[in-house]
Amino acid sequence: MRILVIGSGFGGLAAAIRLRAQGHEVTVLEQRDKPGGRAYVWQQDGFTFDAGPTIITAPWLIDDLFALGGKKTADYVQLIPIDPFYNVRFEDGSVFHYNGTRADVLAQVRKFNPDDVAGYQKFLAKTEDIFKTGFGLIDKPFSTLRSMFRVLPDLIRLRSDKSVAKFAFEHVKDDRLRQVFSFHPLLVGGNPFQTTSIYALIHHLEQKWGVWFAMGGTGALVRAFVRFFEDLGGRLLLNTTVEEILVDDRSGKATGVRLADGTVMHADAVVSNGDVANTYMKLIPSRHRKKNTDRKMKGMAYSMSLFVIYFGTDKKYDDIAHHEIIMGPRYRGLLEDIFTKKTLSDDFSLYLHRPTATDPSLAPEGCDSWYVLSPVPNLAGDVDWEAKAQEYRDRIVAYLEERYMPDLSKHIVTERRVDPRYFRDVMSSHLGSAFSVEPTLMQSAWMRPHNVSEDIPNLYFAGAGTHPGAGLPGVISSGKIVADLIGGAT
Predict the structure, then answer these.
(1) Residue 24 reports pLDDT greater than 70
(2) Any domain includes 476
(3) Which of 189, 193, 210, 238 has the highest CB neighbour count under 10 A?
(4) What is the pLDDT of residues 167-210, one digit of tens each?
(5) Radius of gyration of the chain (CA)
(6) Which residues have a Cβ under 8 Å from the Cβ of 5 and sit 6 or more positions away?
(7) For residues 327 and 91, what is the distance between their CA atoms, to the nearest angstrom?
(8) Residue-number span of the structural domain to which 180 is assigned
(9) For residue 86, is it within any domain?
């Protein structure tokens, strides 16, 4: 079969690799000048900045891809474990050093609140149970209601109706520990107070298999996937924008795509790794979408967006770890501002990324490469980013300078930033959402946009907006689902 894959994010590349390994003729169409999608890479003044995901978990999913061609991950890219996984910092100056060593984590819990040790151990045991069920579904399609009914008893048993926050709060009482063990949904675009407790499996996943980093940055993993795909005989076209998915009026099947320059490319199947809402509403005429209508797409809840400052410093801040989670003075209130009220708060929580703590080659000698990320409302709110962006940037830099990075403003030698407009205008993401469809219980599994379109039988979806969701394990698994649905060459 001739298959066109729209978008070269990790989900699209994972699908393309598997489809090519099955024997299909596969072409990936990428609108930008580099592959990667949200995992785009900027080089600037000698510094390298990963634009998107920086946390690698479930490394065996990556190994499985390379094994399709009889290769090992190490043949294409070097993955190394990170310790600590994160430092989680609080306004009172306390720091939770979070890693995968059981004794270390228990010691940290005991330091924060001795009375929470037993509760944490129960929490950990339950996350293992959730993992066994939840991760077993990560590469299984939910294209029919029957597929949902099959797993419903397990979802009820695991109390997936609870949020991650409620689940964590039942086990630990210290407010800081509650944040440590419930913030993970933010890494995949979810509000811990709204995201189903199934996502608590991330804690067990990290504890058992660790957190990893690709030497050279996440972009090195993108390049490894692309090189492997091309070694298998696949084709990647850059600077190639799809303007329409062509659908035959009689059969209702996709026949290919029309590019922005008018070129028509024919295909037996099309895979979209683009934003689900954007794909349906902008690439497919409404007459072909009886189920996935504009009204349905606009009626879904979408994840928050992000404000990210990428910067290089001419000095090293060796007290800062590779991954730092900096909690603001409010937890639930801030999340309500971001997800519900969709307003820009006076305070913030931050993710500070310092890849040069692990790989100094990402900056000139004696320098550090960084990004600092702040979750912010998507564009369903009324924030005027044209007016607010510089002020918000200055507040974040001043905060870091005051509390963690002395004289920061004097040592920044290069900088760039993105806000929700980037996700809307460059990443073609509905409402400038950074993670597409929000991972709530009512937008999970069968209730999430399907991996195969209900309207167009040979149109498939891989990526953050479809099942199983955002994050590297999720999007890589979505590629497997698509390849399994399409099957071997015929």
Answers:
(1) yes
(2) yes
(3) 189
(4) 999 999 999 999 999 999 999 999 999 998 888 889 999 999 99
(5) 22
(6) 12, 15, 16, 19, 26, 27, 28, 29, 270, 271, 273, 462
(7) 7
(8) 100-210
(9) no
